[in-house]
Design brief:
binds adenosine-5'-diphosphate; elongated; 14 helices; 12 strands; five-stranded mixed beta sheet; alpha+beta
Length: 503
């Protein structure tokens, strides 16, 4: 009607062939907009209208000139060809859009699956993506230890025994079955096997929201692509789990071996000394002069202490590994903790020059006295073990920004640059045969424990070499929070305060 109106207005001023163009334009428009049927209809109507209004005799379908028959035929053919092309173009565009949507959906799923850790979140995400694309519900079933499938993410109303039977068949035979297939088509969902390189890993079931809708081959193909991606992700999760388990086992094995070998040597050496000294005392007590007896007793005490330190470290290590460190921070003056630690080594330090530098205005530090004491003891023990007897030690503490930094400097051989970080690793010793030279507590755990304790305090521990030779072991303790307000001297409860510090 619109074309006829336009042609009517042009009639007289324009050639008849131009009027035909107007109709062709209309048919093309219809073809693009409404597809083939309407466009053929449009072509026929155009021919009829053109004949009726613009071919003599006017307002009849009669045709006076035979050449118009040719005009009609050409007009009809052109209309048909155009509409066919237009329809094809439309279909292609639609297909491309659909592909693009599916590729995008697949990409979105693959990307999310790749970013997830652990099997469960992965299955949830896969089911969500597949449901979104296929407009229905998705079930993922994975085999348990006995090979029986268990639903991991389910259809909302659960999976009936019969459905599960279908899924199991799919799993056992590695072939698709259920709805929209030739095998067991009465099932409510389509089931696809998830088969990885190492064998089947599970089954994917998809039930369209529309009860009666079947999946066409194109959709089934797409579903297979999604199933493949899900399979890859599941297998990756399985492999990661296996690798983790294997890693844990290797680590446990290594730990056990290292512990056994160190225990067999490091516990035995001090024990041998203790047994030796004690039995000498027993056998020849009277025959021995007093200084010798004292020396033997001292050996027993020293070696027992060493054993104690070693056992503490070993136990502490197990505790650190199992549960992390539990610390009880209290605001304490650092010089007190340092004093207690130094007192433990009074005898071993002997005549070594030891300087302690703690500024008077050093604030109270929130710390666990026992644990920081242990850190200092381990560092002092190392300094005694790895530096020549009689060489000087310097302990210092200083306020550094929002933390307090403690440093223990020695004048020993230092630590090879390459090992400065590694010495904090479990069982790491610069020279593996070191413990032979320093019979006693040396398993390469001391610094590891120090690090665990300091990091639990929120601080940092590191080693460096002094320009003039010797090593420095330093750690920081952050000054977080507010120290408790101390009552002014002479005011209430001075006793409790002292008790606090001692604690
Ligand atoms: P260990 O039980 O063997 O002492 P640590 O973890 O305490 O284990 O120390 C790891 C290694 O760091 C030691 O084997 C030693 O080689 C090196 N080390 C530690 N303290 C010092 C130091 N003050 N001077 C030189 N080397 C040190």
């Amino acid at each position: 009607a619109a074309c006829t109106l336009a042609a009517w207005l042009m009639h007289g001023a324009f050639d008849q062939s131009n009027l035909i163009m107007v109709y062709l334009l209309g048919v093309t428009g219809i073809a693009f907009r409404y597809g083939r049927g309407p466009s053929i209809m449009g072509a026929l109507l155009s021919v009829a209208a053109f004949d009726f209004f613009f071919v003599q005799p006017y307002l009849t379908f009669a045709v006076s000139d035979v050449q118009y028959v040719l005009t009609f035929l050409v007009m009809l053919t052109v209309a048909l060809v155009i509409s066919t092309l237009a329809v094809q173009l439309r279909a292609q565009a639609e297909l491309a859009r659909q592909r693009e949507r599916r590729t995008a959906a697949l990409y979105a799923m693959t990307r999310e699956l790749a970013s997830l850790r652990g099997l469960d979140p992965l299955l949830q995400a896969a089911a969500r993506h597949i449901s979104a694309v296929f407009g229905g519900e998705t079930a993922l079933l994975l085999p348990d230890a006995s090979g029986a499938l268990q639903p991991k993410t389910g259809l909302a109303d659960g999976i009936s025994e019969r459905e599960r039977g279908t899924a199991q068949w799919v799993y056992d035979h590695g072939r698709m079955a259920g709805r929209s297939t030739d095998t067991l088509p009465s099932a409510s969902a389509t089931y696809l096997p998830l088969v990885a390189a190492r064998g089947p890993v599970g089954v994917l079931g998809v039930r369209p929201a529309d009860e009666k809708r079947l999946l066409d081959p194109e959709q089934i193909h797409l579903l297979e692509t999604f199933a493949n991606q899900t399979t890859v992700a599941i297998e990756r999760a399985h492999l990661a789990e296996e690798a983790y388990a294997a890693g844990v086992q290797v680590e446990t094995e290594r730990l056990r071996n290292a512990l056994l070998s160190s225990v067999s040597h490091d516990l035995r050496t001090p024990l041998a000394s203790i047994t030796g000294a004690a039995s000498t005392l027993l056998d020849a007590e009277d025959a021995l002069p007093l200084p010798v007896r004292q020396e033997l007793a001292q050996t027993i005490v020293d070696e027992s202490e060493r054993l104690n330190r070693l056992l503490t470290n070993l136990l502490e290590m197990t505790r650190l590994e199992a549960a992390g460190v539990r610390i009880r921070k209290e605001w304490q003056p650092l010089e007190e903790v340092i004093g207690v630690a130094l007192a433990q080594f009074d005898r071993q330090l002997g005549r070594r020059p030891v300087t302690v530098e703690v500024p008077d205005d050093l604030p109270l530090v929130p710390l666990d006295g026992l644990l920081i004491g242990q850190v200092l003891a381990n560092l002092l023990d190392n300094a005694l073990k790895y530096t020549p007897p009689g060489s000087p030690l310097a302990l210092s503490a200083a306020h550094a920004g929002q933390a307090v930094e403690v440093r223990l400097a020695d004048a020993g051989p230092g630590v090879p640059e390459a090992a400065l970080a590694a010495i904090f690793q479990k069982f790491y010793r610069v020279r593996p045969d070191e413990r032979l030279a320093h019979a006693g507590a040396s398993v390469g755990l001391g610094l590891t424990i120090c690090q665990g304790i300091i990091e639990a305090h929120g601080g940092r521990i590191w080693a460096e070499n002094r320009p003039g030779g010797g090593a420095v072991f330093a750690f920081t303790l952050p000054l977080e929070g507010e120290p408790p307000a101390l009552p002014a001297i002479g005011e209430e409860e001075p006793d409790e305060r002292t008790a606090d510090f001692a604690d």
